[in-house]
Structure formats: C-alpha cells, structure tokens
Specification:
Bound molecules: nicotinamide-adenine-dinucleotide, zinc ion
Largest sheet: 7 strands, mixed
Radius of gyration: 20 Å
Shape: globular
Number of strands: 11
Structural class: alpha/beta
Helix content: 40-55%
Order of helices and strands: EEHEHEHEHEHEEEHHHHHHHHEEH
Length: about 325
C-alpha cells in the first residue's frame, strides 16, 4: 500500500491515499486497536468492522460534547485500553474530532489515526491536527492541536454518503480553489457535482489534491499565526449565519464566500465574484441569501476572532490568491 509521509512541527503523519479500510490491519495491530464510529457509518458498512473492537456513537454535531467524551473514556476503561492502544476514528468530522481529542487526553495521550468517511472530512476535518468538542453554543471551544499518526482513505465508503454531505464537502473544495488553486477552480467550473459522484478516478484525484492543499497550508503555519487563517475564507460570516439560521456548514460558508467575494470586489478590486457565485451554484450551494444584517453583525461582534472593533476578514485578490484584511464592523455593515 502506497504511503506518503508529511512532517509537521512535532510529528509526522502517514497518508494512505489509495488504501482501503481492508488494509488497516497492515498499519495497526488488531489486538491493540479500537475503532470509533457513528451509527450511520456502522449501519452502512457493518461488514468492514468485523473482527475489530468498535465503539459506536450516536451521529451528529450535538454529540460532539464532553458527555460523549466521558462515555468513550468509560468504554475504553472497560475494554482495558492502555498506552499501547491505538484509537482509529472512522467517520466524518464529528468522529475524527472526538477521536483525536479523546486519544489526546486518555492516559495523557495515546496513538490515533483516521479513516475519514465524508467528503468534508477527507479534504478538511481529518487534516491538520485540530481536535476538539463544542461547549453549549460555542463550537470547538475546547480542544488540542495534535497530529494523528496516519490517515487512511477508502473512497468506497462514499457510496453511502447522502447528497447534502457531498455539497458540504464541495463548499470546502471550492474554498481551497478560491484561496490557493486557480487551475483547480477552472476544473470545478468545467465539471459539476454529478460528474464527480459518478467518476471514482477524478474524485480520488480531486480529494488528494485538496488534502495536499490543506496539508501544505498547515505545515507552513500549524499554530495559525498567518497563512492557516486563509482557510477561514467564507467562515467568518458563515459561522455567524450558521449560528443564527438553520443552515448546514457548507451552505453557510457558501453564502459567506459569496459576500466575501463581493467585499473583495469593493476593497481589493477583485473582478471575479460572478465566477465564484456560478461555481457555488453548480455544486448546489446557496449564494446571495437574505439575512438579518443586525442580527448577524451582533454575532460577529461577539466572535472570538474579533480584535478591538475590527475583524480579520479573508478576501480575494484574484482566484487562487487570498489575503488577510482587518475590516471594521462599521465598514462591514455598510458593505453588506
Ligand atoms: N478538525 C478540523 O480541522 C475540522 C475542520 C473542519 C470541520 N471540522 C468539524 O467537522 C465536523 C463536520 O464534519 P462532517 O461534515 O464530516 O460531519 P459529520 O461527522 O456529522 O458527518 C455528517 C453526516 O454524515 C454521516 N456519514 C458520515 N460518513 C458517512 C458515509 N460514508 N455514509 C453515510 N453517512 C455518513 C454522519 O453520520 C453524519 O450524519 C464539525 O464538527 C466541524 O467542526 C473539523
Ligand atoms: Zn469549514
């Protein structure tokens, strides 16, 4: 099985892009490994979990909380997990975040790896070492930056992925294209969601390319002093919208990217808002949406990224080139 190793500041991570979960036994010792997954993934792919110790959790963001951490820890103790144990998160971002967090605190830290099963976790959540949980309304309030030992891809798992989760994943892929990769943006313009859902080979290549974009950004700035912030393109406004309206993460950041693009047009002479909007629409994502400006600005004011009365906004100079720009709340209010 082909392996690529990436160095981070105090760990290296093995990526198995063309692996398949059947190869997991070549990476970890079955006796000393516990898989953590959720009911949806388990139900669709039960036979792949055969002969593995498995903890199955309830699915959904509402379970990415301390109570779930406590219950996992109790089960680990019951299963006699010790310092030799490896935890493997097999699931979307909720499962990988929980697994990485529990593995980082159980017995002061044990080995862990990921088998991401959503498009979003393949291209985003499994990469970069951020692991954590939500506290009340505060998303990812508690956590740690610690890299997994390995990431194993198995694209067959995507066969059961619901349509809306494909769209969520594409929102992050379009984000990567906007901030870092103009050529990939053109590829996305040429194709559409249906194209990738039908074509394994092209989807595999696209997933790898995106995993590498995020990996490179994180390698250069693991602790988010500079360039890693660019990954927040569309997310500042997106998070505020997600917090106020019934939107999925992908939908929220899609609207966020639309407004960030038009803000870039006003402040950075960016000329391609229409292309950004068109590509988002092509992948079934919302763009210019009506929302209560005052409500959303209020949420932004309380955002933890706020410094004094300005917000660090990610803008585009052109497709493939993003910059960080502090914008005052007033200025933002005027231009929305
Ligand atoms: N750590 C990071 O750097 C990082 C980055 C981005 C997002 N995240 C986190 O990731 C989470 C979102 O991840 P997500 O979108 O993968 O959500 P998720 O884990 O909730 O998965 C979405 C849904 O798809 C189901 N599912 C997963 N794989 C499936 C499959 N193969 N077939 C059928 N159903 C499947 C899940 O049960 C769930 O219902 C958020 O909590 C977010 O904070 C973390
Ligand atoms: Zn995101």
């Amino acid at each position: 099985m082909q392996k690529k190793t990436f160095r981070f500041s105090n760990a290296s991570v093995d990526y198995y892009f063309a692996g398949g979960i059947s190869h997991l036994k070549e990476i970890v010792d079955n006796k000393n490994t516990i898989l953590i997954t959720d009911e949806n993934v388990f139900a669709h792919h039960q036979k792949r979990f055969k002969n593995w110790n498995t903890i199955v959790l309830k699915p959904g963001e509402e379970y990415k909380v301390q109570a779930t951490v406590d219950s996992i820890i109790e089960q680990l103790i019951e299963m006699e997990a010790d310092r030799k144990t490896t935890l493997v998160g097999v699931g979307g971002g909720v499962i990988t975040d929980l697994t990485g967090y529990v593995a980082s605190v159980y017995m002061r830290g044990i080995r862990f790896g990921f088998v991401p099963t959503t498009l979003l976790s393949l291209v985003d959540a499994s990469i970069g070492g951020k692991n954590g949980i939500d506290v009340g309304v505060y998303k990812n309030m508690v956590g740690i930056i610690r890299q997994p030992s390995f990431i194993l891809h198995d694209l067959v798992l995507l066969n059961s992925l619901p349509e809306n989760e494909w769209r969520n994943g594409f929102a992050e892929i379009i984000k990567h294209a906007c901030i870092k990769d103009a050529a990939m943006f053109r590829e996305l313009e040429k194709n559409d969601l249906n194209f990738y859902q039908k074509r394994k080979k092209e989807t595999g290549a696209l997933i790898q390319r995106n995993a590498l974009i995020k990996t490179k950004v994180v390698q250069q700035d693991e602790f988010e002093q500079g360039d890693r912030k660019l990954l927040n393109f569309g997310h500042t406004l997106g998070h505020a919208l997600e917090n106020q309206y019934e939107l999925s993460h992908g939908e929220a950041i899609s609207i966020g990217m639309t407004y960030a693009a038009s803000l870039s047009q006003q402040l950075k002479k960016f000329k391609q808002t229409e292309r950004v909007v068109n590509v988002l629409e092509k992948y079934g994502l919302p763009t210019f949406a009506q929302f209560d400006k005052d409500k959303v600005i209020n949420v932004l004011k309380m955002d933890k990224k706020k410094t004094k009365d300005s917000i660090n906004f990610i803008l585009l100079e052109r497709i493939g080139k993003a910059v960080i720009q502090p914008i005052s709340i007033d200025q933002l209010y005027q231009s929305l």
